[in-house]
Amino acid sequence: MRHFVQSIFVAAALFLPSAGSSAQESQTAWQDHQGMLETRIIAASSNVSAGFPGQLGEADQGAMLLAWEATLKDGWKTYWRSPGEAGLPVRVFLDGEQLDILYPFPERFELFGLETYGYSKQVTIPFEVPSKAGRYTFNADFMVCKDICVPFNAAYDISVDPELSGTIVTDTRIKNALDTVPQRFEAGNVDLTVTSVSFAGKPGHQNLIVEATADMPLSKSDLLAELDTTTQFHSPKMRILPDGRSVRYVLPVMSTQKNLDLAGKRVRLTLADGRGNAIDRFFDLPSR
Fold first, then answer.
1. Distance (Å, rounded) from C-alpha 217 to C-alpha 231?
2. Of 70, 111, 202, 250, which is most buried by a Cβ count within 10 Å?
3. CA-based angle 79:105:143, to the nearest 5?
4. Structural contact between residues 156 and 40, judged by C-beta atoms closer than 8 angstroms
5. CA atoms within 13 A on the CB side of 83
6. H or E element in which residue 82 lies
């Protein structure tokens, strides 16, 4: 369904690559994209990078933290890694390889009656590369939607040095963004736990059922579920359990796969407690 919607709205849009921007030590120049948004790349200092657990493997490998940043004009939105029923996710590439970027927890939007997930007004999306001084060219693919949807590709050139890059401003922006990225690791300071993941119903007519608990009430929490590009989970119906700190979420499943069966599937859950904390976990559903 999402691919069909994209075809409709993209047909009227121009896919225009953006020119590379001038290099600076801690940030590139802003690039304007048809008056819909502006984007750039910013770099953090080694102090910020050293305090981040990282995703690159060996601890002595080191990493530099950078971020793709966008400022969107009123009404325009760009998209999370799983955009929902319309849109395309923000993706960043280095030397043709897609990077594992760290998406902040998204907002929910309705676009032409379809549920989507993404960002409005302003977003900073961190990512990391091996800690090595040099000149880098990053490419980003992203889509923005308002009355129409428009895809873009942009290139950004920046010279970075792990010991010299980063300013108070870019460090603050990247640290603030990291605070909104759901925690991927079990060991952490977020008291938020998924206690049960199951499903109910016959193939093709199933609901995903998730239970979670926290040290504070979850009445303002939100849950996003992902399976694959052919499957969407509707907004959860939430019920507070008797202890007051636990919640049950029921998410109806919609898929282009006829008679989709969740049995034995792996789902990705992103849970936010409504107070600025969130976790990102994978779970294997029980087999029949």
1. 30
2. 70
3. 5
4. yes
5. 23
6. strand 77-84
